[in-house]
Amino acid sequence: MGFWLVLLFTLLTCTNLSKSDPSDEACLTHLSQSLKDPANLLQNWTRSNFASPCSGFTSYLPGATCNNGRIYKLSLTSLSLQGSLSPYLANCTNLQSLDLSSNQITGPIPADLQSLVNLAVLNLSSNRLEGEIPPQLAMCAYLNVIDLHDNFLSGQIPQQLGLLVRLSAFDVSNNKLSGPIPASLGNRSGNLPRFNATSFEGNKDLYGYPLPPMKAKGLSVLAIVGIGLGSGFASLVLSFTGVCIWLKVTEQKMALEEGKISSLMPDY
Ligand SMILES: *[C@@H]1O[C@H](CO)[C@@H](O)[C@H](O)[C@H]1NC(C)=O
Ligand SMILES: *[C@@H]1O[C@H](CO)[C@@H](O)[C@H](O)[C@H]1NC(C)=O
Ligand SMILES: *[C@@H]1O[C@H](CO)[C@@H](O)[C@H](O)[C@H]1NC(C)=O
Ligand SMILES: *[C@@H]1O[C@H](CO)[C@@H](O)[C@H](O)[C@H]1NC(C)=O
Ligand SMILES: *[C@@H]1O[C@H](CO)[C@@H](O)[C@H](O)[C@H]1NC(C)=O
């Protein structure tokens, strides 16, 4: 009797262990649907493997690493992946490292990533991501790497990211970002790791410390002063000419009147 109970218990535990995690399954299924893999380098990224991707520490999915039966690392770099990032990535709630760098992924960075409360590394560099950097990333309190360099990201850098006190690497260079660099990132206080100009360069309309002052700005100020002075001078010349013409015309009129008057007047 005891033996059967033990066997039953073991069976139950085993089925429990091999049972899929529904969150990870949703995450992987949607990610594989939103990404495109034209070079077919993600073999084994098949539906049957999403249900139970982990066997101990190893994973049947190339690029995925497991811990306690959950995906904790996704590293799919330089695979010519296209498509976009599924918001369901947020269902991989044990994820500590997400590295999809050096692909051709388009579309926005989903704000839903804020649910990844264990995330320490976010490397989406060298892709074709567009849209704004979601300020919600500041909710991932353990983030210590945000590498978004070489994309098409636009808008301002959210100052909320400065709240991430563990941040030791931050790179948004070579995007289409604009506006001022928040002091919370450009000029970090206390003993927080500081980021130099290399983290911010290559964004045409981004300005502020630690980037060097924009030369173009200085030129345009000069140009504005030049235009102002020039137009001032032109209007001066114009009004002067105007006054001259007016004077000439009235002079002629007066001469004419004088002539009329004198012709009407009898000669004395
Ligand atoms: C995935 O996440 C969404 C919202 O974050 C949640 O509503 C949904 O239940 C999750 N799905 C699974 C299977 O965990
Ligand atoms: C692919 O997945 C199967 C299980 O579905 C596994 O037996 C096999 O080892 C995996 N191959 C690789 C290269 O991971
Ligand atoms: C992000 O990935 C790129 C390319 O794989 C790598 O060169 C870079 O060092 C990574 N960034 C960080 C901060 O580790
Ligand atoms: C950086 O911050 C310090 C103090 O927080 C301040 O004194 C300094 O002026 C700031 N530098 C720039 C370039 O904004
Ligand atoms: C900027 O910081 C990076 C490390 O974050 C370092 O490798 C690089 O040498 C620094 N560049 C300058 C000009 O200080």
From TrEMBL:
Pfam families: LRR_1 (PF00560), LRR_8 (PF13855). Residues 1-20 form the signal peptide. It is found in: Cell membrane. The chain crosses the membrane at residues 221-247. Coiled coil: none annotated. It comes from the Eukaryota. Keywords: Cell membrane, Glycoprotein, Leucine-rich repeat, Membrane, Repeat, Signal, Transmembrane, Transmembrane helix. The keyword Membrane applies. It is a single-pass type I membrane protein. The keyword Transmembrane helix applies. GO terms for cellular component: plasma membrane. Belongs to the RLP family. This is Inactive LRR receptor-like serine/threonine-protein kinase BIR2. The lineage of its organism: Eukaryota, Viridiplantae, Streptophyta, Embryophyta, Tracheophyta.
